Amino acid sequence: MESIKSAVERSKSIGEVKSSDPLTEGARQDCKELLEDSVDDLKGMVEMAGGDIKVLLSRTDDLEHWITGVMTFIDTCADGFADEKLKADMQGILRNATELSSNALAITNSLGAIFKKLDLDVFKTDSRRRLLSAEESKYPAWMKAPERKLLASGGLPAPNAVVAKDGSGKFKTIQDAVNSMPKDHPGRYVIYVKAGVYEEMVMVPKDKVNIFMYGDGPKQSRVTGSKSFADGITTMKTATFCEP
């Protein structure tokens, strides 16, 4: 975590002279966001364990996924620079963070395998836990009961915001509906997108983690925003739906 924080500070000078170039400036901003997201994810891992080594070891699969995500963020940061020299400079700054992340992944993988093989209590399931029904077992273990029930019922929750291209809803764009979610909203914030073609790029802020969005079907509610590297935009920002 400290290595990535250091990389954030050191990377501020990369491409500074060429900041008038939109692709270079875009790559600089992407790096800032990606590295800050990496630090946030690492903090999340620490907070998840709460200092309890048993909790940490019992979730080695989750740790491996998160660390792999951090490594992907680091690689994406450097790959965003079209200028080969700037890319090499950024890779140099990120080298220590890259190596530490790789080591952390290898250690987590090895420890998890060793402790599972030893059959320690931390990995044993609670025999008192109720068996999942056949319907519930179709869904991932991390999915909570209310979400399982919602998907199993085939029903859809009442929306907090309705988007309609023809003006029959509260919002005409999906982005406006996303932006309308209050910061202190409890539980899911449900957005219903009525049939229509929405020519926009939708950005979902990372602090809005409980948005549930549905439409009238893949051929009815369509989002057609399109951007590309050729438009002077970094690849990371070309997704139709993405996190800013």
UniProtKB/TrEMBL annotation:
- Biased region (Basic and acidic residues) positions are 7-19
List the CDD domains hit by this protein, alphabetically: PMEI-like_3 (cd15798)
Q: Which InterPro entries match?
A: Invertase/methylesterase_inhib (IPR035513), Pectin_lyas_fold (IPR012334), Pectin_lyase_fold/virulence (IPR011050), Pectinesterase_cat (IPR000070), Pectinesterase_inhib_dom (IPR006501)
Q: Do you know which SMART domains this protein is assigned to?
A: PMEI
Per the record, the domain of life is Eukaryota
Q: Could you tell me which Gene3D superfamilies the record lists for this protein?
A: Invertase/pectin methylesterase inhibitor family protein, Single-stranded right-handed beta-helix, Pectin lyase-like
- Coiled-coil annotation reads none
Pathway the protein acts in: Glycan metabolism; pectin degradation; 2-dehydro-3-deoxy-D-gluconate from pectin: step 1/5
Query: In Gene Ontology terms, what is a biological process of this protein?
Result: cell wall modification
- What region holds the Pectinesterase inhibitor domain? 1-107
Q: Name one GO molecular function term.
A: enzyme inhibitor activity
Start and end residues of each stretch annotated as Disordered = 1-25
Q: Name the UniProt key words of this record, in alphabetical order.
A: Aspartyl esterase, Hydrolase
What does the similarity note say? In the N-terminal section; belongs to the PMEI family.
Name of protein:
Pectinesterase inhibitor domain-containing protein
The organism of origin for this protein: Triticum turgidum subsp. durum (Durum wheat)
* Lineage of the organism: Eukaryota, Viridiplantae, Streptophyta, Embryophyta, Tracheophyta
